[in-house]
Amino acid sequence: MAAPTAEQALAQVEKDEAEKLKLITVHKELELQFDLGNLLAIDPNPPDGKAFRQQNRAQFLCSLARDNTQLLINQLWTLPTQRVQECVVATLPEPTTRIPREKPVPKPRAPTRWEEFAKLKGIQKKKKTNLVWDEVHKEWRRRWGYKRAKDDTKDWVIEVPHTADPNQDQFAKRVNAKKERVAKNELNRLRNLARADKGKVPGVGLTPTSQPSKDQLGKAMQVAKRSTASVGRFQDKLPKEKDPKNMGKKRKFQPLVGDFKAEKSKQLEILKILDSKKPKMDITRAVNRQMREEDAEEAAKRRKSSKKGRGGGGKGRGGPKKGKGKAPARGGKGKGKGKRK
Fold first, then answer.
1. Chain CA centroid to CA 91, Å
2. 311 close to 303: Cβ distance less than 8 angstroms
3. Which of 155, 241, 253, 340 has the least CB density, counted as fewest CB within 10 Å?
4. What is the block-wise mean pLDDT of the chain (341 residues), using blocks of 10 residues?
């Protein structure tokens, strides 16, 4: 087979380039309307109904979308471009078509108490750098967070002030102070959220109700008692004090390692119940249930008889009453002891 000549190779290259140009060249009867700021292209040409019916519909729509996208990309290459980190970036113009938002415009956040105070006093926020110089380690470190500069939690010794108790743990005091600051910041955050929603601003501790009920007071007292280190185990009870209702019961679990004989007997009892055809009957429970039912029936009978005894003698409000409206006997007093004439 003879090798192609230079003329044939050049003709093949020209043919390949022409095929490539065909891929980026699209002919339309009417020019498209472009809004490059929104990367929008509007095609005013009516679709070919005959081709839409004869060809595959999905394929026809894909080819139409591909042609319009190619025209949009061709327009993007006419814009001024620049290279940013080995990428060619085009500068888009201002959009001309107003596109409606999917979601409403977000409402501005309500200012916090500090922001209102700073605005009133004219205090301007100054941006702090994230890195500061640490004199101890002689290096630049973060201002906050892990491995920060001037980290007082890494101190192995703390000087006891003259006014403090010498037996007090200064390390624990520093930890508790930090916990209090964190809790105070969280409380202020909740107050800002409540103020923004125009709700009730929580006070210090639990938010009290306007008129707490007896159960609520009991629960609050129980929670206060259980807030000790011993979970209220050594707290004394008041005279005639009752445990609050609906406080929940602590579940008790059997130990994993213990009496193997008791565990073996329990498992054998469960197997006997599962293996027996007749269900096991608890005689004591059945007798107690029967006694309760009988007592309930007797109580119902007594209530019915008492109701009958109360309503049997009277005849209503409209009936005659004893001792009124009757004429006395002629010759005597009392119940007919007089003589008749």
1. 44
2. no
3. 253
4. 70 74 76 89 87 83 88 89 86 87 86 89 88 89 88 84 88 91 89 75 55 77 82 81 71 76 86 76 87 93 84 51 49 48 43
Closest residue by Cα to residue 243 from 252, 232, 259, 251: 232
Residue 33 dihedral angles phi and psi, to the nearest 5°:
-100, 125
Closest CA to 171 of 150, 144, 153, 146: 153
Estimate the share of the chain in helix, then strand, then coil, as percent rounded to the nearest 5: 40, 5, 50
CB 331 within 8 A of CB 340: yes
Q: How far is CA 23 from CA 137, 146, 283, in A?
A: 64, 57, 92
Q: Which pTM value belongs to this model? A: 0.31
SS3 at position 154: helix
Domain spans, the chain:
15-90, 168-200
DSSP states of 57-110 as a string?
Answer: HHHHHHHHHHHHHHHHHHHHTTS-EEESSS-EEE------SPPPPSSPPPPPPP
